[in-house]
Design goal:
By secondary structure, the chain is an alpha/beta fold. The protein has helices spanning 19-31, 53-57, 71-76, 136-147, 159-170, 191-203, 300-314, 384-392, 402-409, and strands at 11-15, 36-40, 79-82, 87-91, 96-99, 104-106, 109-112, 116-118, 130-131, 151-155, 174-178, 207-209, 214-220, 223-229, 234-236, 239-242, 246-248, 264-266, 277-279, 284-288, 293-296, 326-331, 334-340, 350-356, 361-368, 371-378. A hairpin with a 2-residue loop joins β13 (214-220) and β14.
């Protein structure tokens, strides 16, 4: 491997200090005590736990519990943490990263671990108290506004909109949850699963409305005051939560020659098409051996494990990422867990479904040909490790036996 400085130390630059980037930095340092490691982020905070933000919003945990590492942790490991620094361009021929501040960072090996940013509501009219929910700073701003609010509206049909809905309701706000589609996670769940989520949300006092968009956001004194839906209904609110998807932070790579689609395209070792440039976590669209093509993931354990694997490969290894990522969160008093490839990442999968109304348990398994590739579980997790094994072992499951596999998993 080339060494870039006069002292012969290898220069690693990592853009993004989320769990993927920070884990990679930590593992590189463990293996190479002499290397220069620059870990930069456009946020003002060292690594914090994004999946702890929902319980923080519900005030079930204190702010200290959200922090994972402080600045001292980085200093002790000689990891140069550069806060509030935005990478605006990469030149892989010169092996340089350019920052908004005007600084240039030369590198020998580069990691893009820039995650995603929440999509804004296009017609929010610049009103205050309309919030995305992606960062610690978003959470602090939402917390302050919860204290001043009686009613809230949430728009979106995916996890972030659910997290906002649950948090607002659990903090005692009158909460209306609007979705453009026919149900929560419209591709992952089908009608009966969606109806179960609605029943659970309704039991917790949430008003759930499907098939609507926000036609107009109205305000008073520059602050949101009510929302008008596409079917003409008006919902007063002092807080509007927006969970309408994320855009991967890879636009700054335009023109660099680093290949992207929705994120940086990588092989199974998380290498981009450009030598010396890697990607990990939410900003990697990596080759998934279970479905046989690149997929996008947005889960904490996927980003963590990417960080570990990519570090080995940045150090010169050739370690393929071979895992079944799981996204698990509360569903009011219940729980939901999605694992592996779902129709969200892989629209062509086929599915079988099981529902037990009494115990509010539901599962849907996804298949590609004779192999199971993923699933979603609401309620009891019985049989989950076996399902992961079937995916990992690539066990052949004839089409006629899919229902049997599903039935056995809940016995
Ligand atoms: C509210 C919330 C709840 C979640 N709950 C769950 C859950 O229950 N379970 C689960 O599995 N997953 C959950 N997730 C998803 C999970 O948190 C992410 O998949 C994971 O954090 C991704 O980590 P990452 O390191 O790839 O990216 P990120 O954590 O997004 O980190 C990327 C960092 O790079 C910075 N950056 C971006 N562009 C630049 C640039 N040009 N220059 C410098 N810095 C840049 C970003 O600001 C950010 O700090 C949740 C996410 C959110 C927002």
């Amino acid at each position: 491997m080339s060494s870039g400085t006069s002292n012969g130390e290898h220069r690693y630059v990592i853009i993004g200090n989320g769990i993927a980037g920070t884990t990679a930095a930590e593992h590189i340092r463990k293996a190479d005590g002499a290397a220069s490691i620059k870990l930069l982020t456009n946020e003002p905070h060292p690594l914090y736990n994004r999946i702890a933000l929902p319980p923080f919003l519900k005030q079930k945990i204190a702010r200290q519990k959200v922090t994972i590492h402080n600045e001292a942790w980085h200093a002790e490991r000689n990891i140069d943490l550069m806060l509030e620094q935005t990478a605006v361009r990469v030149d892989p021929l010169a092996r340089e990263v350019y920052l908004a501040s005007g600084a240039t960072l030369p590198y020998d090996t580069l990691l893009i671990a820039t995650g995603g940013r929440a999509n804004p509501l296009p017609n929010a009219n610049g009103l205050q108290n309309v919030f995305n929910f992606q960062t610690l700073d978003d959470s602090l701003a939402i917390l302050a506004q919860i204290e001043r609010s009686e009613s809230a509206v949430v728009i979106g049909g995916s996890y972030i909109s659910y997290e906002l809905t649950e948090a607002f309701r659990s903090r005692g706000l009158q909460t209306t949850w609007l979705m453009r589609g026919p149900r929560f996670l419209r591709r992952v769940l089908e009608a009966e699963g969606g109806a179960l989520v609605d029943r659970i949300a309704g039991r917790h006092g949430v008003q759930v409305i499907h098939g609507v968009e926000i036609a107009e956001v109205r305000g008073q004194d520059g602050k949101v005051s009510e929302v008008v839906t596409s079917d003409g209904r008006v919902f007063p609110c002092q807080l509007l939560g927006v969970g309408v998807g994320i855009t991967r932070n890879v636009d700054f790579l335009a023109g660099s020659g680093i290949e992207t689609s929705s994120a940086v395209l990588t092989d199974q070792c998380l290498r981009s098409n450009v030598p010396g440039v890697f990607a990990a976590g939410d900003s990697a669209e990596y080759y998934d051996p279970y479905v046989g093509h690149p997929i996008l993931m947005g889960t904490w354990d996927n980003a963590t494990n990417h960080g570990k694997i990519v570090a080995q490969n940045m150090l010169g290894g050739e370690v393929p990422y071979d895992d079944v990522p799981t996204y698990s969160t509360t569903l009011f008093h219940n729980r939901i867990m999605a694992f592996g490839a779902t129709p969200e990442s892989n629209p062509d999968v086929e599915a079988v479904m099981w529902l037990d109304e009494a115990s509010e348990s539901y599962r849907r398994l996804f298949f590609q040909g004779e192999r199971m590739v993923g699933g979603v579980i609401i309620g009891q997790r019985k049989g989950f490790p076996k399902l992961i094994d079937l995916i990992k072992q690539r066990t052949p499951i004839p089409v006629a036996e899919r229902e049997q596999v599903l039935a056995q998993s809940v016995q």
